[in-house]
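Schema walk-through. Below, the input block comes first and the output block second. Nothing else is stored per chain. Lengths vary across the set, and this one has 291 residues.
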Amino acid sequence: MTQKSVVITGASTGIGKACALWMDRAGWRVFAGVRKEADGAVLRAEASERLTPVLVDVTDAASIAAMAAQVSAAVGDGGLHGLVNNAGIATGGVLEFVDLDELRRVLEVNVTGQLAVTQPLIPLLRPARGRIVMMSSIAGRSATPLLGLYAASKHALEAITDSLRLELHPWGIQVSSIQPGTIATPIWGKALDFAKDVVPTYPPKALELYGPLVEALFKSLPKNDAKGIPPEAVAEAVFHALTAPTPRTRYVVGQDAKVRMWLERLPDRLRDRVMLGRIPKYGGEGDGMMG
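--- output ---
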């Protein structure tokens, strides 16, 4: 039998690394997408000879084309059995003051980049009746204050996932979305570093109006890494999506994600009251916005 193969982007750390090592241990040939050769060497040292690091930047067309050519040459007529679009960034900000270039950046990575990687690999997935897994987030269902940019990108990714699932159905290519909640990965430290860099660029008015909300963000981000569940929990869901006879269309991972999913079933006004009750009161100039 042809050894099954899978491409996993964003495999340097966190969820992507956990998925790469999980599929490697399961006997799959893994093409682990990384942006730096050093990251590939570290990953390779923890895996079997089946794992091959491949350099790819999901925002660079030439990089994607080179990766696709490398994978095509390696898998040959047997085709590709899986694609896990995991690469992504977490970002946010106060929407009234956010730099619109930051919105463009997160959409380029989290949305455009996912489709850019998928397009040249679909012809490789057809002969193997392979599967596509999109690493979304519970933010693809539920948008919260200060994370509107990230949630917008994941909502868009959910739309692409649904369309792909229908468009690729005639060839038996299953497409699933993974929607994790809080996972213990370096992404939270990166998000905190980003917040520390961007908040000082806001005008004084921003902190007058939103100060308590921004302060709450700074306090919550370091806690996410501690309270998050291991990335292996997500890797297990990815494995199921790639191997189950009938994979789910969506996998919600983590208790907090399941709570958020329940919250989104409430009427909008009730849902808003629940969320507002969990964040500090804010609103400058005595406008009484939050009571």
